[in-house]
Design a protein that fits this description.
Number of strands: 17
Radius of gyration: 21 Å
Order of helices and strands: HEEEEEHHEEEHEHEEEHHEEEHEHE
CATH class of the largest domain: Alpha Beta
Number of helices: 9
Largest sheet: 9 strands, mixed
Distance between the termini: 45 Å
Helix content: 10-25%
Number of domains: 3
CATH architecture of the largest domain: 3-Layer(aba) Sandwich
Bound molecules: coenzyme A
Mean pLDDT: 93
Length: 349
Amino acid sequence: MTGPAATDPWDARDAGDPSGRLTVGERVVVRYRLPQGSEAGATDVLGMLRSRDEQDLVVDSPFGQVRIPRRDVVAAKDVPPPPARSGPAHTRIGIADLELLMAKGWVATEQSGLGSWLLRSAPRFTGRANSALPVGDPTLPLERAVDFVENWYRQRDQKPMFQVPGPVGFDPADDEVGAHLLSRGYAAGVGQSRGEHVRVMTAPLAALPALTEQSPPVTGDARLQPEWLMAYGESRTTVPGITERVLTGSRGQLFMSVRDEGSGRLAGIARMAIHPGWAGIFGLWVHPEHRRGGIATALVSAVAMAAKDNNMPSVYLQVSGDNTGAIAFWEELGFSRHHDYTYLAPADA
Ligand SMILES: CC(C)(COP(=O)(O)OP(=O)(O)OC[C@H]1O[C@@H](n2cnc3c(N)ncnc32)[C@H](O)[C@@H]1OP(=O)(O)O)[C@@H](O)C(=O)NCCC(=O)NCCS
């Protein structure tokens, strides 16, 4: 791969102060010195970083809230969500945790929380960025939580839409939120032909093919270039001003591309989102004239290379259940289905 290396964004900040690398709201591990005279010299705490000011970090740990003077921090980093089951890292993450992680890879222009539910708006650009993600506890009874979401979208002149995740092939009627929405006159499968679910697929980094001498050269750029955006616009409808903000809205992202030497134009693109322990692939597209020539494989190999450099052992993506060609491609590369989601919106929307 040519171009700038994928820098690990939380390693680049505040080089002298490890606590400066942490992200508020993320799961973190912090090693810090104990007061003089303590039996152990230092200890570790694992939990969610609640806040950070000039002096202290506050971490919500399973044993309560811990306030740590920043000058005592020896080492610190963001870490992936905890495992929900046994197995390799790309399968053991829970559905809600992976959904919340993926939401950080595709950040809407306006976001709000309702407990752990996420409300997102990015006018007319993608279902994901214009839907509520109802995972975890909304801190209100379900009916009132849905009222709240409907009102939030009404205030923005938008129809409410919910992105409801569940196990592979799930029936939304078997999901608590899904069943409630159906009882309120919502329909499932909105925006997908034949009402297919969207598949969330994951793979271990180790399974992905490496770049070879035969691979077309891939360029990686931390900035969104107009040329990349133009190619992206060939693959889907974009909304000037909104699309750019969503594409660049994550904490870290890389824009990969392969150039067609003949025409000089980009023949294939992909966007990589960077998370603790995970890489996400978005917007993979190869110009129809250049398909089945290994360009998409090279783009994914370049993502894998950047993920390896940044210590991200797992990779995720989302693909519409009716996109049979792309599903065959991802399966060929070693991805398997982690879970599904579907959109529910009022039937008259
Ligand atoms: C899916 C897509 C990215 C594949 O790009 P590509 O450059 O043609 O893929 P590759 O040449 O690297 O394919 C590698 C292998 O994947 C499989 N594959 C790729 N496209 C396939 C298809 N349409 N049907 C079945 N298998 C396919 C094949 O096994 C292929 O190897 P082969 O050509 O030797 O048989 C391309 O078809 C595309 O841009 N589609 C539209 C956008 C899209 O759906 N993106 C994915 C969103 S999740």
